[in-house]
Design goal:
- It is a multi-pass membrane protein.
- The model has no long low-confidence stretch (mean pLDDT 91).
- By secondary structure, this protein is an all-alpha fold.
- 76% of the residues lie in helices and 0% in strands.
- 20% of the residues are buried.
- Helix 2 runs parallel beside helix 6 and helix 4 packs antiparallel against helix 6.
- The protein starts with a helix and ends in an 8-residue tail after the last helix.
- The chain has one domain.
Length: 161
């Protein structure tokens, strides 16, 4: 599971680089076209929102792997090493359960017949494509958490704890 998590991490990092670069380039061109050529790009706002959504969910998963989310640790810091391990196991199990619930509903939402027929306003892109960012980001996050849980259960605390 750790190898799968590492491969996903590499994919996430590559995707975040590509998506953020595309977003930056698109926004620069959108500003240039709007203010210098007086001819705005009609689909730039829509695409930038889709790129930001994808970056947010992929980045959230990546951040979860490395534990970069904000947390309150006063209780965790005050307990023994054994209790910390138990806290990590309980936390991971609760987060995995929550993620699986979210994955279920994200899939159900994404595969809703009305959603499958919906198209974006400017590009006429099927909306399941931008909405799939939620599902894929949650799947990646669940894999990272499962890997972390397995490492914790094996008492093999890695750099991603």
């Amino acid at each position: 599971m750790a190898k799968i998590s590492q491969v996903i991490t590499k994919i996430e990092e590559l995707l975040m680089i590509i998506l953020m670069a595309a977003l930056a380039i698109l926004m620069i061109f959108a500003v240039i076209f709007r203010y210098f050529f007086k001819d705005p790009i009609p689909w730039a706002g829509e695409v930038s929102i889709f790129l930001l959504i994808w970056t947010s969910f992929i980045g959230g998963s990546w951040g979860l792997k490395y534990g970069t989310q904000a947390s309150v640790t006063f209780l965790y810091d005050a307990v023994s090493k054994r209790s910390k391990r138990i806290f990590k196991i309980v936390q991971d199990c609760m987060m995995i359960a929550f993620l699986f619930i979210l994955i279920y509903y994200a899939y159900k939402w994404m595969m809703n017949p009305a959603m499958l027929l919906q198209k974006s306003s400017s590009l006429q892109l099927p909306m399941w494509i931008p909405y799939s960012a939620v599902f894929i980001g949650l799947i990646f996050a669940a894999i990272h958490l499962l890997s972390h849980l397995i490492d914790t259960l094996k008492n093999r605390e890695g750099e991603n704890t």
